[in-house]
Amino acid sequence: MLGPSQTPVSNSNELMGMLTAYFDDSGTDVGNRAAVVAGYIASDFQWKRFVARWSKALSDKRVRIVHRTDLESFKGEFTEDNGWNPSRRTHFVIKLHAIIKTCTYSAISAAVIKADFEAVMPRSAKDLYGGVYGWCAFNCVLAVRGWCIERNHNGPISWMFEAGTKGSRE
């Protein structure tokens, strides 16, 4: 289901400058039951602050990149040999979530059960959206539009979608 999780904004006039929405996918490859496109919307100022804080958090833990699946399963950089355990992971996730919460306006996501999509979507809709990734990405765009309408924001938005995923051209 799609839906923005709201981060309080005290005044719609606080939406300063260009907004950018960044999105990534999960589950779009073969073998996963559901597909998700999710991301965040923030001002350019917030993204700069996000990058600085995120980079420092990773540097402090000697982590190059966070793949949540690796973090949850203690693979890649997050092995026991590298000093990772459930307690360290929990503290790290809490820190990263705080960065996200303070440096973005809202989370936006859309998900679909792939078998349901294939079963109920008419061919014309599949052709229009290209597949589950296109469907989810389109619904994220609609959710951002709704978020902007609620806040009376009609300025420009820069869109960034995962480019290396199955369906990224949908």
pLDDT averaged over residues: 87
Order of helices and strands: EEEHHHEHHHE
Q: Please state roughly what percent of the residues sit in beta strands, choosing from under 5%, 5-15%, 15-25%, 25-35%, 35-45% or over 45%.
A: 15-25%
Name the shape in a single word.
flat
Model regions low in confidence, pLDDT < 50 over at least 5 residues: 1-15
Terminal-residue CA separation: 19 Å
* Rg from Cα: 18 Å
Helix count, DSSP H or I runs of 4 or more residues: 6
- Strand order, biggest sheet? 1-4-3-2-5
Annotation, overall tally of beta strands: 5
Helix content: 40-55%
Structural class: alpha+beta
Describe the main β-sheet briefly. Answer: 5 strands, mixed
Assembly of the depicted chains = single chain
Structure in a nutshell:
With 170 residues, the protein is of the alpha+beta class. It has helices spanning 44-60, 68-73, 86-103, 114-120, 123-129, 132-150; strands at 5-6, 19-26, 34-43, 106-113, 157-161.
What does this structure look like?
The chain is of the alpha+beta class. The protein is 44% helix and 19% strand. The chain is built from six helices and five strands, in the order E-E-E-H-H-H-E-H-H-H-E. The protein has helices spanning 44-60, 68-73, 86-103, 114-120, 123-129, 132-150, and strands spanning 5-6, 19-26, 34-43, 106-113, 157-161. Strands 1-4-3-2-5 form a five-stranded mixed beta sheet. A hairpin with a 7-residue loop joins strand 2 and strand 3. Helix 1 (44-60) runs antiparallel to helix 3 (86-103). Residues 1-15 have low confidence and may be disordered.
